[in-house]
Amino acid sequence: MDRTGIVSLILGIVFLMLGGWAVYIFRDQVILVLQGIIGIIGILVGIFMVLFGILMIKE
Q1: What secondary structure letter does DSSP report for 26?
Q2: pLDDT given for residue 1 in this prediction
């Protein structure tokens, strides 16, 4: 491994630790964001299923 790989590995580990610490500290907000993402995914799936149904009816 060259120096760039070692620096990248070390920075990756540092960012993983900082990210884990942030998720632990802000876990209530993280849960709210995940709930929001689930809702948005449900809406998008519904829209795509409606569009798919319209396309199937037209044929």
Answers
A1: T
A2: 66
How many Å apart are CA 5 and CA 40, to the nearest integer? 38
Does residue 19 carry a pLDDT above 80? yes
User: From CA 37, how far away is CA 44, in angstroms rounded?
Assistant: 10
Angle of the 27-58 helix axis to the 3-25 helix axis, nearest 10: 100
**Using alpha carbons only, how large is the chain's radius of gyration in Å?**
21
DSSP-assigned states of every residue in 6-58: HHHHHHHHHHHHHHHHHHHHTHHHHHHHHHHHHHHHHHHHHHHHHHHHHHHHH
